Amino acid sequence: MKALIIVDVQNDFLPGGALAVKNGDQIIPIINRLQRKFSLIVATQDWHPENHGSFAANHSGKEIGESVSLNGVKQILWPVHCVQDSKGAEFHLDLNRNNWSKIIQKGTNPLVDSYSGFFDNNRNGDTGLSDYLKSEGVREIYICGLAADYCVKFTVLDGVDEGFTTYLIQDATKAVNLQEGDFEKALEEMEDHGAILTDSSKI
């Protein structure tokens, strides 16, 4: 059994959003086409409280892009984004949601960020994604969405660690690219960790 995991295709990560990924909207038609090939589809959703510790606005004197220690983990500070029940946290209207089996919300604990769809960044909080997939008999997962160098990457790495044959769909993801070349580094890291790089035409 295989599953498609769509990571964080939310308004705040798309052009015009608070933490926009350049050309992030270009992957939506690709993801919609991909969905026709899967009977099990799971989406992750960044779902932060307003007082989340990853927001620069919640740290006096700190700027976006600076780092702090958050619950013992190095944390990059981001703009306020994907606040619970906000427009920015909603999935893009063009994203087909008709056949989704489950939505996994993450980043709900203000004391720790959660890039991965499986665990928070401390690996203390479990979203239940792994148990759900295994209960459905899933052995292969195909991951796409935003952003390649953060939430997608950590979801892929955890997917491998959880024992799934894990594919990264390269043409169905885009990177934040805080530093030039971050996308390429993320791809290399995922592949080195045991993920299989593929593209939508091969699925």
Automatic annotation (TrEMBL):
Q: Which GO terms describe its molecular function?
A: metal ion binding; nicotinamidase activity
Highest taxon, organism lineage = Bacteria
Please give the pathway this protein is involved in: Cofactor biosynthesis; nicotinate biosynthesis; nicotinate from nicotinamide: step 1/1
- The entry's keywords: Hydrolase, Metal-binding, Pyridine nucleotide biosynthesis
Q: What class of enzyme is it?
A: hydrolase
Which intervals hold domain Isochorismatase-like?
3-200
Source taxonomy lineage? Bacteria, Pseudomonadati, Bacteroidota, Cytophagia, Cytophagales
Q: Which family would the database say this protein is a member of?
A: Belongs to the isochorismatase family.
- One Gene Ontology biological process: pyridine nucleotide biosynthetic process
Tell me the InterPro entries matching this sequence: Isochorismatase-like_dom (IPR000868), Isochorismatase_Nicotinamidase (IPR052347)
**Record protein name field:** Nicotinamidase
Q: Which Pfam families match?
A: Isochorismatase (PF00857)
E.C. number: 3.5.1.19
